[in-house]
TrEMBL record:
UniProt superkingdom: Eukaryota
One Gene Ontology molecular-function label: oxidoreductase activity
Stretch list, region Disordered: 356-383
Biased composition (Basic residues): 374-383
Cellular compartments annotated: Membrane
Membrane among keywords: yes
Keywords: Membrane, Transmembrane, Transmembrane helix
Compositional bias annotation for Basic and acidic residues: 358-368
Transmembrane feature ranges: 49-72, 92-113, 140-162
Protein name from the UniProt record: Fatty acid hydroxylase domain-containing protein
GO cellular component: membrane
Domain Fatty acid hydroxylase positions: 190-324
GO annotation (BP), single: lipid biosynthetic process
């Protein structure tokens, strides 16, 4: 009996261990398949946007093919993914591609080749991120990346509350048929940039730069963002998470909520804002646009160097209108006049008008000669 009981116990535990091994293996295989499926879906989400952005670089036939590919891919994505999932993952991918990765790459360049980087910084070596302590630099990197992810999370929570709790439409429109690039998407992007600029300026000036004794938000902003005297690209997202939401995320999201932009317009706006932050916080004196980005970068640097005494807007237009530019700092009008003088735009315009007038005169003279020759030929034939 004892041997039989021992045998039964061994058989039981053997079967138990076999079942456990099977369940663990099955769980591992199912988890791997699920993870692979999610990664594949993440890789397909940027394809419509990338194909749409590639359209202007091809000819007419290629443009038709690109548009057809874009439309087919977009319809497939919208049909197979939840709209909220599509919105959030697309937003996160765009921020990573257009802000996080370039900012980390520039940070690596500044750290690995400081002598070369300092030569193209507007304030030289003083503007290098390596001037910070290693602990402070790690903190800036962590908080900045966290704020980027946190803003996407808050966006998802807001949309979830709108659609699932309040049972109203989502803030961002997701449809199978994308809007026409002209004029719908162009107007949405322009509305978004203008309204976002207004909201950012007034929130930044009146909320985050109010009296520190009267506003906890102002104290947070001063203790976090303005602990840096010379920012760099990644530091554009370095602030208290609440302050970051107010200045960087809320202006664009509230504008989108009011107008209910299409998700593709939201993608484009997110990409533009991400690139804007990357360039104007970089501290480099060599930028793609000398008429706009260079002036924005100088005003941003002055805002931090003076501890927030002015230059609250991004483009500088509202600072010029309301007189809140930093003392002694060039405003947007000065930048434009300098660019006009440097490029001699008036002379170019005069030359273009002169060439156009000369072309019209030549066409007119050739037309008169051809008509007179035709009349003489008809007279000879009649004679």
């Amino acid at each position: 009996m004892a041997l039989q009981a021992l045998r039964d116990e061994l058989v039981y535990y053997y079967g138990y261990t076999q079942g456990r091994a099977f369940s663990v293996g099955d769980l591992f295989s199912r988890t791997s398949a699920k993870l692979l499926s999610q990664v594949s879906s993440l890789m397909t989400i940027p394809l419509p946007l990338l194909s749409f952005l590639a359209v202007p670089f091809f000819g007419s036939s290629s443009t038709t093919v690109s548009l057809a590919f874009f439309l087919l891919t977009w319809v497939t994505l919208v049909s197979t993914h939840d709209p909220l999932y599509l919105e959030l993952i697309g937003t996160l991918i765009i921020k990573i591609i257009f802000f996080v990765l370039p900012s980390l790459a520039v940070l690596g360049f500044d750290s690995l080749i400081p002598s070369l980087s300092a030569s193209i910084k507007s304030r030289g070596a003083a503007q290098l991120p390596t001037q910070l302590s290693s602990r402070k630099l790690r903190n800036v990197i962590f908080v900045s990346v966290f704020n980027v992810a946190f803003s996407v999370l808050v966006q998802g929570l807001c949309d979830f509350v709108l659609t699932e709790v309040l049972n109203i439409r989502s803030a961002i429109r997701v449809s199978k048929i994308p809007p026409a690039p002209w004029p719908t998407m162009v107007k949405e992007v322009l509305y978004g940039l203008v309204c976002r600029g207004f909201l950012h300026y007034f929130i930044h000036r009146n909320v985050l730069h109010a009296s520190p004794r009267d506003s906890v938000l102002s104290r947070w902003h001063a203790d976090w963002a303005h602990s840096l005297k010379h920012p760099f690209s990644l530091a554009s997202a370095y602030d208290h998470p609440v302050c970051h939401l107010l200045t960087d995320w809320a202006p664009l999201y509230l504008t989108t909520l009011f107008f209910r932009f299409h998700v593709l317009s939201w993608y484009i706006l997110t990409a533009i804002v991400s690139l804007e932050q990357f360039f104007i916080y970089s501290g480099y004196s060599v930028l793609p646009s000398q008429i706009l980005l260079a002036g924005m970068a100088k005003r941003t640097d002055s805002h931090y160097a003076t501890g927030g005494k002015g230059n609250y807007g991004r483009w500088g237009v509202l600072d010029w209108i309301f007189g809140t530019s930093c003392p002694g700092d060039a405003d947007v009008v000065d930048d434009f006049q300098e660019e006009v003088g440097r490029r001699d735009i008036k002379q170019h315009a005069s030359n273009m008008i002169g060439r156009a007038g000369e072309t019209l005169r030549k066409d007119y003279d050739s037309g008169r000669r051809s008509s007179s020759q035709g009349r003489r030929r008809s007279k000879r034939q009649a004679a």
